[in-house]
Amino acid sequence: MTLNILTSYSRNEILFYVRRALWILIAWTVISNVLFLYEFFTLKSNNALDSSFDFKTAFEANLIVGICAGLIGGIFTVNVMEIWLRKYPFWRALLYIVFLYVAGAFIVSTLGAFYFNADTLGKTWEHPDTIAAVGEFYSSFLFIKNFIVWLFIVLLTLIILMINDKYGPGVFPDYLMGRYFLPKTETRIFMFADIRDATGIAENLGEKRYFNFLKDFFSDIAPAVMQTKGEVYQYVGDEVVLTWKMRNGTHNSNTLRCYYRMRKIVSQKSDKYLKKYNAVPHFKVGIHCGKVMVGELGRIKRDIAFSGDVLNTTARIQAACNDKSVDILASKHFADKLYRLPRGIRPVPMGEEFLKGKTEQVALVTFERGFLTGAG
Prior knowledge:
- By secondary structure, the chain is an alpha+beta fold.
- The protein has two domains: about 1-165, no CATH class; about 170-370, Nucleotide cyclase, GGDEF domain (Alpha-Beta Plaits, 2-Layer Sandwich), CATH 3.30.70.1230.
- It has 15 helices and eight strands.
- The protein is elongated.
- It comes from Dokdonia sinensis.
- Keywords: Membrane, Transmembrane, Transmembrane helix.
């Protein structure tokens, strides 16, 4: 089962989760040690430390707790909690998260308590005195305080991840720093992804089931966007507008990787869609890049907005997919920016076209898979 799950992810996707787990491990370990040292020096300055206190043993026990918490949190707990927040209503997800946190807190605290008390008492972990000391630890103020503090840290980590998901990788820090408070020019890549035969699917499903159909589709493709450093700019009916900063979208051809990963996800979940909706969300995309104005808009609801001819051109390129009978169409201007295509993918020129609303022809390119696989 584990092997099947791992093989369903590409190398870049696995690295995405590994990097996130590593950052959580480092952050939580640092936080754990900072809190320990703060308490130690506070108690020492007030002459509140017992003469039998062993700094080395206490520090090592705290380090074990921090590393174990970081490993469990980064590899398992945070990912499971994030899935629950996407899958369930907030109150139910929060209830599950609290239960999972309690279980994780007891496991990590038990490891640290056994190490500290066994070393302090000079006895083995299974010795009755060690076990008794660990039992007393659970009713101590130290355990209760750490329990509350780490619950706050876990929830704060989840909130940061959720906000980062909402704004896209790297966007929230820019928002906090006020980078877009005043309008500025940026070179961006845009992808317009639109579900084919959306009207027919909507008529067959009805409003409520069609809304859930779109909800499932947008939720399922979200990992592909995050893992390729993309940002969701807008959901417009059955269409989603994605954007990348130029360096993020061209690095490892992330924009194309996002498209092929989206296709792979939908293909893997096709049975689920057929069983639930009797329809699979086949989609077409248009891709273009260029300079846009970007800045914060709104007073009641503030958001980061883009404006410029690039968006209109991208929408027209996507609409031309039907005329060209392809699922992906991009401007040659964008294709020329890709210095390394995903393995097994090759560009196919589609000629120059007068797109609606454009006075000059736009050179178009589609992309095809060769005999090699692995672009997902």
